[in-house]
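Listing S7. Sequence submitted for prediction.
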Amino acid sequence: MRRFVFFKYLIFALTGALSVISSGFTYGQEKPSVHELTIYVVPSHSPLNWESPSSIYTSSFISFIKARFSKYPNSVGHMFIEFSTPLIDSVVLTGMRSTSSMEKVRLLNKEKIGMGIMGAPMGGKMENSADLRNMIDYLSAKKMKIAFIKYTLNEQSALRVREFLETFLGKKEGKFNPGKHYGGAFWPRYENEGAGCSSFGLAVLESAGVNIDIPGWKMTVNIPANLVGGEYNNNRKVRRYKIEQVKKWHSGEGVEGVDYFEYKVYDPSLVYDWIIEKRKNYIGSNPENQIKGKDFQPVTSNNIPGLYIDVSNISIPENEPVFLKRTKQSVFIDVYKKRISQQ
């Protein structure tokens, strides 16, 4: 029984989805005069250790335990966006979460998919703007960790962000709604794919033409195949103690999807640390930093530390689509596409 409870808690810690929040918008008093996109990041309650399957398992659980004593228990961190533009009548404040804790319990305790939970597709839902605003205010008032990066966009970029959000939020009648699908293997710029919390935020940014290939933001590991079970790996059963025994990631030798499963994630904690470090190292006396688009400048809003950069000089090829076709195979995406084709 104790093992079941421990494992159930780990489900939440690994996936970082602890509450169900409905989708919505925040409406401003006046239309903004500029196009701005802000990425908010909240780090995990305790540092995550990506050294091995065993260490990420243990550190995720520790973070979850600490998160249980918080009003906003984003145990492995969170990321969400705010989009303000004169092109629409509302300020969009939203993020991505999974919807059902029981689905994770089933995947880990009944189907025993092991570390396949990190990429498994499941139900998702867009977050409510009012709840996110309350969280921002609460974390700020309590002086808890939260940071942001604000980007000034040009109209071309803003139009692309609007198209991305309209599609992802299911605002186009008769169109597929990716915002109902959550998972760590998704990249939301691929057609009809859902998202994790950080991949949603950074895919929005990438759709605007902004570079997201920032050293230190992303973690890439190879999960040993024997730690992935269920329908993703020949119905293998993976138990908790198996994960705890593995002290290193797979080397990457062999066949992907057979010997190992590549996993990539933009870790909100890494992005948060990068923001704080960038603020510390900013040289305000250097006039080159003031050139449009040259560097991030430290700013503070509502007592929240952040960075600002004007990227309105970005030029995006007119024929570049907002949504792309996936070219790399993934067993998690294959299972997902099979499911939605049957709906």
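Caption to Listing S7: primary sequence and predicted structure tokens for the chain studied. The chain is about 30% helix and 20% strand. The first strand starts at residue 35 and ends at 42.
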